[in-house]
Amino acid sequence: MMAAASTPTPLPAPAPSLKRRGVMLVLASPPGGGKTTVTRAIAESDPQTVISVSATTRAMRPGEVDGKHYYFVSREEFESKIAAGDMLEHALVYNNYLYGTPKESVEEALAEGRDVLFDIDWQGNKKLTEVAPQDVVSVFLLPPSWGALADRLHGRKQDSEEEIERRLGKAQDEISHFAEFQYVIINNDLDDTIAQVKAILDAERSRRQRLTDVEAFVKTLKP
Length: 223
Known about the structure:
With 223 residues, this protein is an alpha/beta fold. Helices cover 39% and strands 18% of the residues. It has one domain (24-208): 3-Layer(aba) Sandwich (Rossmann fold). It has helices at 35-45, 75-83, 103-111, 122-131, 146-156, 161-175, 190-205, 214-219, and strands at residues 24-28, 49-51, 55-56, 71-72, 87-93, 97-102, 115-119, 136-142, 183-186. The chain starts with 23 loop residues before the first strand and ends with a helix.
């Protein structure tokens, strides 16, 4: 006799997913505090995230690509965008060049459920929070000690001693604004810091206010 064919075990139904609005995740730190490294690590490992690309009026440097590193625009074009309300935030840096965040590309990403990562300072966070308080999630990275921060800046071996001292002076001002952020992490171990930021992002993705079709889904949960 032929053995009866076994009945295949049915595969579980795929879990339903909810549409959501993206998160504007702001990462800030004093110079050398790790915000750029953490931002890039999350963007490279999570396809739901994109790094915000700023616009600037400064000249393009060797190796930079327009639209990838920055949007390089004239001062007249930048000021026109400010007047039209097309910048989420902007600042004059060193009393010379304008830097800012174009609104259109960020809004498109959020509407598509993608999270936008911002590597900016406390002033940028303040302005973003003022214009988009429901979208912004802010994280401030603190160094484990002042000595560790100074060692990191010296360890880069990219800047003069004068520039390092300037950055350390700026670091004191940056750290004084830690209380303006929703989350604070001591960046002692890079892998642990990245994991903590990812956990914050995962939790914020499930915040009820961001789930655009949760009410419609709940109405389907009937016997």
